[in-house]
Amino acid sequence: MPKKITDIFVSISTTHPASAIVLGVPGIFVSGDALNDQNYTSIDGVVADYAEGTDVYKAAAAYFAQPNAGKAIEVITYTAPKVDDTTKETTGGIAEAAKAYFWGNWHFAVLATFNAADALELSNYIEAQSEKFAVVQQTTLDDLSQFAKNTRTITLYHLVADERFDLAVLGRVANADVGSVTWKGKGDLVGISEDKLTTDQYDAAEAAHAIAYVRKGNKVVTSNAWTASGAWIDQLHGIDWVKENIEEALQDLINQEDKIPFSDAGFAQLQQAVDKVLGDAYNQGIIAYDTGTKTGSYTVTAARYEDVPAEDIANREYNGIHWEYTPSDAVQAMHVTGTVNYAA
Fold it and tell me: What three-state secondary structure class fits 215?
């Protein structure tokens, strides 16, 4: 994970395979001569640097065209890989740019111009961080197969190559309150055509955990809500939201308080801050309901002073907070049974 300037480090282990903080900004990666990172808040800003007809412009335009789009995008320039003749070390490449600007505003990485090798490198890099998402779009499932094992990559299967289904989906869904939406069944994508798939093509897309834009009932909508490995996007997005908000809440507490005592009373302050974030996550739909406690299915514990190692006390480092939660689910399919009662 790229180094972050912070006093708070949140580590997460999950038992599932796999705010004020904005977690819906797309990062559009484009190949160029030098590393660069630029934020834009409108298509007018983009066109000043990337002319109409360029792939960056087309991607940004598809995003800002959606009624639910966020207020910003990020354009990240990466350089081609280069091997030093003497040291044989490789510099450049898309992963280098992702690392350099990992703590920017972007949360969903897309390529301005698809390149299979760059897409896989970016996908694998994000997978290793266990945070944020890569989003790739292709017209064949074979071209998406290289991402099949990556939990943090969203694969989109769209038959019209020059339509930016990827940015349209992000504009439609990514900026909704995390936990409030599933990514399945989302329609009204501006500028995106229906994928008129055969039953076999649809079944193949489902088996590949790809997402298409298909007609269901009387509306054209996104076919599913998963990543390439079959994990649910909204649950992973929720994990990111919880992590980022806990980090922010605890860092704010340290910044604002004159002193947090290294005592059970101080630990209780830290525990309370984490508990509030998880409570907010439950209210937002990220955390499941517990039928036993009649509230959110989460817990937060704080180790007592007497159990803290002497070395941690000497270093003023408290590692005793532990939290866990059960993510919420959503109804996305059903089988309905019925009975017909014939008259005697």
Answer: strand
pLDDT of residue 246: 95
What is the pLDDT confidence band of residue 9, given thresholds at 50, 70 and 90?
Answer: low
Average pLDDT across the chain, whole number: 93
Cβ neighbour number for residue 39 with a 10 Å cutoff: 14
Block residue for tokens 């819906």:
24
The structural domains of the chain, with segments of one domain joined by +, span 26-230, 234-325
Closest to 99 measured CA to CA, from 70, 73, 71, 79: 79
Confidence (pTM) = 0.90
Q: In this model, does residue 229 exceed pLDDT 80?
A: yes
The answer to whether the CB of 169 falls within 8 A of the CB of 247 is no
Report the pLDDT value the prediction gives residue 1, as an integer from 0 to 100.
Answer: 63
State the Cα angle at 313 between 309 and 319, rounded to 5°: 65
Residue listed under structure tokens 């941690």: 312
Is residue 126 within 8 A of residue 109, CB to CB? The reply is yes
For the chain, the helix, strand and coil percentages under 3-state DSSP, each to the nearest 5 = 35, 20, 50
- What's the CA gap between 35 and 135, in Å, rounded? 21
Main-chain phi, psi angles of 326, to 5 degrees = -105, 125
pLDDT in tens, 174-186: 999 999 999 999 9
The rounded distance, in Å, linking the Cα atoms of 341 and 58 is: 57
Give the tokens for residue 78: 């990466």
